[in-house]
């Protein structure tokens, strides 16, 4: 999401303002799509390159007017008076967190990879069946309250094994279209050189 100062009421009010963003695929992609959807270009704003650990400090010290960020920084900035002028809800299915494992690691320790994925899906099940206990654990890690931890999941889709297989496997995996669009945006922003073999990156390994 993009969090802005209280005096910036809409996304269009960012014209001429300083927007903090990581020089990474996620930050560049979200900002690029937000500008595109709102009929603006990158030249309409002043981009300030920031690392993730600089988001909150730069915002509260007035070095930037808005920032492309994520939880738990979002909660901290909302509590400091900021508000959302754009979120990934406006680009559904385009922002996806993935687990990336090098093929050499899979070949060397397939059981370890299965242990990781099984642990993930076990945690998702626990979050579904016992959200309060899960929230307390997550809150401690993120440095927020249990209520804020649960609220941070609002609007997020947490696919189960079947959902992951749909995203990663089959003749037409859903993530393929997203990855192609992401690669195009990254090349446009000089974040990626050359072509990428998307299909070779998508594998529903250890989802049996």
Main beta-sheet annotation:
5 strands, mixed
Shape: globular
Percent of residues in helices comes to: 40-55%
Q: What ranges have pLDDT less than 50 throughout 5 or more consecutive residues? A: none
Number of domains: 2
What is the tally of beta strands?
A: 5
Give a quick precis of the structure.
By secondary structure, the chain is α/β, with parallel strands linked by helices. It has helices spanning 25-37, 55-60, 73-79, 103-108, 110-129, 131-142, 146-151, 161-168, 174-188, 198-201, and strands at 2-4, 18-21, 46-49, 66-68, 83-86.
Notes on the structure:
- The chain is α/β, with parallel strands linked by helices and 208 residues long.
- It has two domains: 2-90, 3-Layer(aba) Sandwich (D-Maltodextrin-Binding Protein, domain 2); 103-201, no CATH class.
- It is 47% helix and 9% strand.
- The protein contains ten helices and five strands.
- It has a five-stranded mixed β-sheet, sandwiched between helices.
- The relative contact order is 0.13.
List the helices and strands and how they pair.
Layout: E1 2-4, E2 18-21, H1 25-37, E3 46-49, H2 55-60, E4 66-68, H3 73-79, E5 83-86, H4 103-108, H5 110-129, H6 131-142, H7 146-151, H8 161-168, H9 174-188, H10 198-201
Parallel strand pairs: 2-3, 2-4
Antiparallel strand pairs: 1-4, 1-5
Helix pairs in contact: 5-6
Keywords:
208 residues; alpha/beta; D-Maltodextrin-Binding Protein, domain 2; five-stranded mixed β-sheet; 47% helix; globular
């Amino acid at each position: 999401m993009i969090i802005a100062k209280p005096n910036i009421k809409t996304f269009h009010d960012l014209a001429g303002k300083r927007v903090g963003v990581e020089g990474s695929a996620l930050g560049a992609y979200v900002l690029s799509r937000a500008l595109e959807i709102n009929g603006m270009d990158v030249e309409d704003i002043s981009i300030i390159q920031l690392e993730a650990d600089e988001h909150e400090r730069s915002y509260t010290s007035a070095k930037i007017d808005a920032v492309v960020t994520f939880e738990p920084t979002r909660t901290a900035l909302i509590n400091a008076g900021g508000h959302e002028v754009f979120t990934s809800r406006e680009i559904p299915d385009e922002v996806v967190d993935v687990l990336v494992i090098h093929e050499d690691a899979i070949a060397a320790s397939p059981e370890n990879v299965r242990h990781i994925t099984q642990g993930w899906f076990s945690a998702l099940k626990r979050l579904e069946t016992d959200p309060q206990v899960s929230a307390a654990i997550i809150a401690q890690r993120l440095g927020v309250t249990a209520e804020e931890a649960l609220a941070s999941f609002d609007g997020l889709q947490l696919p189960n094994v079947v959902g992951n297989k749909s995203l990663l496997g089959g003749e037409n995996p859903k993530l393929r279209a997203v990855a192609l669009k992401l690669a195009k945006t990254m090349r446009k922003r000089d974040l990626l050189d050359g072509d990428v073999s998307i299909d070779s990156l998508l594998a529903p390994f250890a989802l049996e």
